[in-house]
TrEMBL record:
Catalytic reactions of this protein: a hydroperoxide + [thioredoxin]-dithiol = an alcohol + [thioredoxin]-disulfide + H2O
Chief location bin: plastid
EC number: 1.11.1.24
Coiled coil: none
GO biological-process terms attached to the record: cell redox homeostasis; cellular response to oxidative stress
GO cellular component: chloroplast thylakoid lumen
Name of this chain's protein: thioredoxin-dependent peroxiredoxin
GO MF annotation terms: thioredoxin peroxidase activity
Subcellular location: Plastid, Chloroplast thylakoid lumen
Similarity comment: Belongs to the peroxiredoxin family. BCP/PrxQ subfamily.
Keywords from the named record: Antioxidant, Disulfide bond, Oxidoreductase, Peroxidase, Redox-active center
Domain Thioredoxin: 57-211
UniProt cross-references to InterPro entries, sorted A to Z: AhpC/TSA (IPR000866), Peroxiredoxin_BCP/PrxQ (IPR050924), Thioredoxin-like_sf (IPR036249), Thioredoxin_domain (IPR013766)
Amino acid sequence: MGAACALPRKVTTSKASKRAQVVVHASAGLHVVDRRTLLVGSVMASMMIQASPAKALDVGAKAPDFALPGTGGGATVELSNILQENDFAVVYFFNQAGSPGCTIESQRFEAAIPAFKAKNTRVVGISMDTLEKQDEFCTGKGLKSFTILSDNDGSVSAAYGADLKIPLLGRFSDRQTFLIKKDGTIVGHWLERDQSMASVKTTAHVDQILAAIA
């Protein structure tokens, strides 16, 4: 007769701790999970399900013009002026200045600025952070080769469909990148949430943008 299946070990707890714990069955046996951990996980999952990103613009659409204050002095940066002076514009929206993922993403763009300039392309980043916060972000993370803009009221993010509302956490720019050619037409569009955007933690996303520039 074959070996008997191992039975899960019995977990014992005091009466007080039982009220604060839940036993979860798993393939490896029984696991005791704190009720607070379950509650926090449930709330976070619920918030992500309820997150309401706007419908984004897509390839072929006309990119809305914008005029936003930028880092390095607060001068207004206009998309129309960028396109007058360059063949392409890369406009990337990110969630929050200084967050780990957005820092890595921005540093990847920083490292690739010479490659974008070689293709007569200007890069700008946009989030809903204040201009002061954007300046601190650039200074602290070594972002000195391109401009980051403050969309503090969220109007430009909303115009591009890069406006993300998360219950309890607030409103943010959704991580998206637009490649816009000289006549204002969107010719490339990548979103993190539909996985069309390659990883921002490596050079993969920057590489896919550069590859799309004819």
